[in-house]
Design a protein that fits this description.
alpha+beta, RutC-like_sf, globular, transmembrane helix, deaminase activity, 60s Ribosomal Protein L30, Chain: A, YjgF/YER057c/UK114, six-stranded mixed β-sheet, membrane
Length: 154
């Protein structure tokens, strides 16, 4: 095994020779969890979001208030507003905004609410259109109407 690249480069310079070296510095990777009091608290063994390098992975956020109050039984619009507020709070805690969303998944217990959600989501994202999937499901935790999961670039 030869000398480390930096030593070989220095030796080449010292010997008066021409040496071309490509040095690749490996980026230090980081994984950290994120928590904000401004969004619904995790109800299990998970974090509100995880940051890996320059990407934010947001866990499924339910229409639950930051104090833990579940909005089951409230109108779809009230629940969707709360879930989107939770998403905004997590994004902001990471120093991001809806404009940095890359992908969003929405689990919805009643697909008939899709048009209402689509309109609210359009106002939330404004002119930004991240990739998105709306997934109809038979039911969600606590009888809630929707859950939002997202990925954002930091």
């Amino acid at each position: 095994m030869g000398p480390p690249p930096r030593a070989a480069f220095a030796a080449g310079l010292a010997a008066g020779g021409v040496l071309v070296a490509l040095l690749f510095a490996r980026k230090k990777r980081r994984i950290e969890t994120l928590f904000t009091d401004e969004a619904c608290p995790p109800a299990g063994h998970y974090s509100q979001a995880t940051i890996y390098d320059d990407t934010l992975y947001v866990s499924g956020l339910l229409p639950v208030m930051p104090d833990g109050t579940k909005l089951a039984g409230k109108s779809f619009e009230v629940q969707a507003t709360a879930a989107l507020q939770n998403l905004r709070a997590v994004l902001e805690a990471a120093g991001a905004s809806p404009k940095q969303l890359v992908s969003v998944r929405v689990y919805i217990a009643d697909i008939d609410n899709w048009p209402a959600f689509n309109a609210m989501y359009a106002r939330f994202c404004e002119d930004h259109k991240p990739a998105r999937a709306v997934v109809p499901v038979p039911h969600l935790h606590y009888g809630l109407a929707l859950e939002i999961e997202a990925t954002a670039a930091l």
